[in-house]
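Hi L.,

You mentioned the student needs an example of a multi-chain input paired with its predicted structure. This one should do, with 1512 residues in total across all chains.
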Amino acid sequence: MTSADQTTASGAPRHDGRAPDQLRPVSITRNWLDHAEGSVLVEFGRTRVLCAASVTEGVPRWRKGSGLGWVTAEYAMLPRATHDRSDRESVKGRIGGRTHEISRLIGRAVRAVVDYKALGENTIVLDCDVLQADGGTRTAAITGAYVALEDAVAWLKERGSVKARQEVLTGSVCAVSVGIVDGRPLLDLCYEEDVRAETDMNVVCTGDGRFVEVQGTAEGAPFDRKELGALLDLAEQGCVDLTALQRKALGR
Amino acid sequence: MTSADQTTASGAPRHDGRAPDQLRPVSITRNWLDHAEGSVLVEFGRTRVLCAASVTEGVPRWRKGSGLGWVTAEYAMLPRATHDRSDRESVKGRIGGRTHEISRLIGRAVRAVVDYKALGENTIVLDCDVLQADGGTRTAAITGAYVALEDAVAWLKERGSVKARQEVLTGSVCAVSVGIVDGRPLLDLCYEEDVRAETDMNVVCTGDGRFVEVQGTAEGAPFDRKELGALLDLAEQGCVDLTALQRKALGR
Amino acid sequence: MTSADQTTASGAPRHDGRAPDQLRPVSITRNWLDHAEGSVLVEFGRTRVLCAASVTEGVPRWRKGSGLGWVTAEYAMLPRATHDRSDRESVKGRIGGRTHEISRLIGRAVRAVVDYKALGENTIVLDCDVLQADGGTRTAAITGAYVALEDAVAWLKERGSVKARQEVLTGSVCAVSVGIVDGRPLLDLCYEEDVRAETDMNVVCTGDGRFVEVQGTAEGAPFDRKELGALLDLAEQGCVDLTALQRKALGR
Amino acid sequence: MTSADQTTASGAPRHDGRAPDQLRPVSITRNWLDHAEGSVLVEFGRTRVLCAASVTEGVPRWRKGSGLGWVTAEYAMLPRATHDRSDRESVKGRIGGRTHEISRLIGRAVRAVVDYKALGENTIVLDCDVLQADGGTRTAAITGAYVALEDAVAWLKERGSVKARQEVLTGSVCAVSVGIVDGRPLLDLCYEEDVRAETDMNVVCTGDGRFVEVQGTAEGAPFDRKELGALLDLAEQGCVDLTALQRKALGR
Amino acid sequence: MTSADQTTASGAPRHDGRAPDQLRPVSITRNWLDHAEGSVLVEFGRTRVLCAASVTEGVPRWRKGSGLGWVTAEYAMLPRATHDRSDRESVKGRIGGRTHEISRLIGRAVRAVVDYKALGENTIVLDCDVLQADGGTRTAAITGAYVALEDAVAWLKERGSVKARQEVLTGSVCAVSVGIVDGRPLLDLCYEEDVRAETDMNVVCTGDGRFVEVQGTAEGAPFDRKELGALLDLAEQGCVDLTALQRKALGR
Amino acid sequence: MTSADQTTASGAPRHDGRAPDQLRPVSITRNWLDHAEGSVLVEFGRTRVLCAASVTEGVPRWRKGSGLGWVTAEYAMLPRATHDRSDRESVKGRIGGRTHEISRLIGRAVRAVVDYKALGENTIVLDCDVLQADGGTRTAAITGAYVALEDAVAWLKERGSVKARQEVLTGSVCAVSVGIVDGRPLLDLCYEEDVRAETDMNVVCTGDGRFVEVQGTAEGAPFDRKELGALLDLAEQGCVDLTALQRKALGR
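Structure written out for the whole complex:
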């Protein structure tokens, strides 16, 4: 994953010694929970997200009788996942905009590879709870949630709720953040880099290298078409690496 | 704004007769309200958004004493803006994820061109209320909110709260949606096109053609780098047209 | 509508030149929205309320199988309808007492002329959203909502959901405010008069001149029976004028 | 309080034997609570409302430094005050429109006789909790709240927080319901009469016979000016009787 | 109920003259409400709780078709039950932890003596509303709720909804508080004693002297096994006395 | 920790092979998080609770200027901690009674050993998030929270915010559940045992063997004094074992 050339080209290594196009150490631990039909503890460096896939028979009321399944996601953060403690959303009595937004993003990302017909009238909820945050929690969550989803689908097949030959998942999905920090495009930003980034982008890709979601935001100065291109190059490569790690974790 | 060539190239005209790279009729009516410091009724075809800029002296507590101003935005929809009536968020007692997400997007978009130091310790709230929705409500909101913001800044200068020579706004900002519908990249989707789009993208640009925000989502099949490029081309041109319309509305 | 005698009798004209028993310029614009089954932009001077009637088949659960229809109303104000911006009730997470109270009043007012049996098991929701407030928002809302209701009933008849000969509406309904300002009874108070009123009364009348609702409140000194009588006289006349304007708007 | 003539004139006595212009047995018990600065258990027949006046030094933030006091009221109903149990508003997490409306009415009623300057920067909250409901809970609440307010003011004077010679209360206030039932105007409706009333009116009067609030609603057919007059006659007389009972309870 | 010996042994009498093992004057008034199927005003000294039992046919959804009944309880406090006024939970929009906890305790306590099968598919809700608080509100509530429950069951039998010979209640239940104050174990603490208690315990017993619930908390120093024993002794005796008072109130 | 005698005495071993007075395997992992001032992952068998101690300078408003510190706790469960997924309290918009109750219990438990004066005006929040639940989550949370609290106090001392010689903690605290299952008193119930328990008790002890909290509930038949004694015996011994494990984890 290292890239000696680029490091040379763009000068000093990152504060943790990574090359600009290098992911943090990624770890994907399956079956971290005993009760969930699929569960993954995913780590991108110090970012640690617990992804649990819960299967229930049946679908929400508005989808009943359609023969189609449903997949949804919920993202949340423990109060002390961050440097300073944040108040619980359950205590505040309302979910913040950021939480909503990321839950919706994860849901769209994983749904992009689900064949609802093959899933049948089953619902899978993907809970992504951030135990520790150090940048990239939403991309780690998507990357881990996909693996938990695979295990939940396997569970459905073992139980015979879905036919073994059905391809419920039409591909894999993963995500990574990229950004421009001090004028330099970097892959997989940690918190320290994230707060300093002029432009910040989250990219969700399928295993075959196409885009499911591209979300770029100028935090400082607006960015031009060329910078956008450089970020997309980095993100595409990062997703190739993450796809390989997902496959390895799944024993393929 | 029309593009005879492209229409030819890509076959049939759109259901409302537009060329693929053609905006809907855009109307920007300033001073639609009597009380607000800036107000704009912006129309993108049948989409109609009322943008009100409210100025208050002072800033939120966390920013007091910094010498810096603050700009924020709130987006909402009247219950019968849509084809079918939707329940009021005030009645439901909570704001939906979509509302939160769009409010945050509008806020980031307009803040990209604000010089907080020049604004001084004043707060401007931009309320974007959708009176009628026919696709592209968030992009119309951003385009109108910028014009209302200009008027609010002018009001501050007239009153002497901000020095007349200060450049509070470092540029202009506008936004447009693009998408791939039936395999064809289209500019400024109306509702009917939006629900059929395979890929849907919202692009926020500054008046000098750089990106503030790029949000692309695969609604159907994932999209590749080439399709992404075609959509960005369309969006850049649409924003050039919208910038011209904003300038005209502001009498420049 | 003017009343030279009374103006003479009670001295100086009002700050906007009106006679004591004179309505502000009233405008009733039908079909202001494209999607709603009935919609009216009603203006009482600078007060501007958008009234949308939404029809749905069926009735709430507690009324199912009764053969009777249902009509209800919701009132709300855009945050910058007023001189100073007010916080959104959706953001606060709860609806204020004033909003509740006015929604209930509008609902009772329009229900007074509905024959539920003739309506059949259909529901009509009347959304009254104040775009700009300058006193009398609730009375403008009732006056406009009735016209939107007429159009929604016509829509039901065109579609054949209600028989063309059925009289769903047993009459018309409109409303006006009256008050005692500087010891003088005045019709249709604007905001400036409203805040100075010693007594403030909202009166809802049917087109044939009977009362649906009378709500009088002493804001300053209590009022006596004679003052009450003078206010009712003014209100009755105002409602005669408003009824004529409603009929004209409906093309009768 | 009985009126043999009217009973004769209007035919059959009411189901509880009362004349049309006769109040139910009214009982006003002071000092029903040990902790509150003023407290009254007021009964209008089977309607039973506990009114507690709580004094705190100081006023809400928006009134600080004005030298003026503040008086407010909150109305609520125990879940089993009614024939069928109703859900608690604390459990539902929101206050219903009816509760809000009545709380606001009680507040306006008692404030009509308060001299804020004489009260000084003290706040009095009047809690009116309905222990049992049989029609007329809001009018009983106002009638009792006034007496509790008197005791709270006396408490302030005893403590020396308000000068003994200050007239904090400029008069007394009470309230009664009237309505047209089976075509006949009746005073002080119990629940059974209330649900059958074609027109329902709540009237708040000062001790010297002027109006603080008049709220008349057509529940069935609209009402005309003559009927309105008959109801006001009844209400005025009922308030004379209630004022006498309040005076007696206060030992005057 | 007095115990001269113990008073002697432990020195000075309590501030209200009671012996350490003496209950406050207890009063149980049945049928305090006209509408409820069972209702009791229970007083432990100045603590006054209104307990209303509401019967409805049927059970919650999750229990339908089981043939079993359901009993639940809700506890609340009027805002001026306490020395200082507290805000209404309905106004705050959420129920506090203490309220929840006590509601759950009362529910468990009364359910301990209910035979759901004998009750059949009926639901009884026990509303315990504290009108005045002077310590021991939860124990008074349980003691009163049981008596109201008895009356509600009798009502069901009279109506024939439950067979007369069925034993719906397998026993009686009551509760009392005990605590260590100034090193001395005391029965039935009033507020003044409660705030000074080092250890505070609530004990729920059946009429035959067994425990349904024991909740002891060290407010100051932790307590040892011997102190725990002394408190349980006191509580057991207190419950014997309360059981006798319940029986007497029920005419047994 | 095993007790061959008792196993023999009370017949068959437990389904997981434990003796009646045997704890599940307990694991206490310190510093599980990088950001928190103290953090512990505590495991009682398959029950897994993450306890994070967050230090902030200063105290809540009501305690300012007192010179005293403050310690509080919040308990929550991840949605898929349990066998079946439960809805998030943040999504429901309100915290359930059980959550409130356990948060309050943990807070009281740890506060029992805090010397607020020695802590000075610092606040420590103890977040106890259940990652996986298999019975005894509240007792595991208390046991782990104490260790995290120790580490947070050490952090304060290292930073010099508290003097090194100050004894902020007056002792240690831990907790365990006991219950009667199939007539047999058992220590440290797992979920399967917990649902079958006739009586269920949670006991919080200090390291020197005194009680901070005793909460016993009859789930089935009421329990007598002798059974209570047997449960307390078990709990006392369990707490001795847990205290030793806490000391070991802290390297004492």
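You could point out the following to them. The helical segments of chain D are 4-9, 89-92, 97-111, 116-119, 137-158, 191-196, 225-249. Chains D and A do not touch (no CB pair under 8 Å).

Best wishes,
N.
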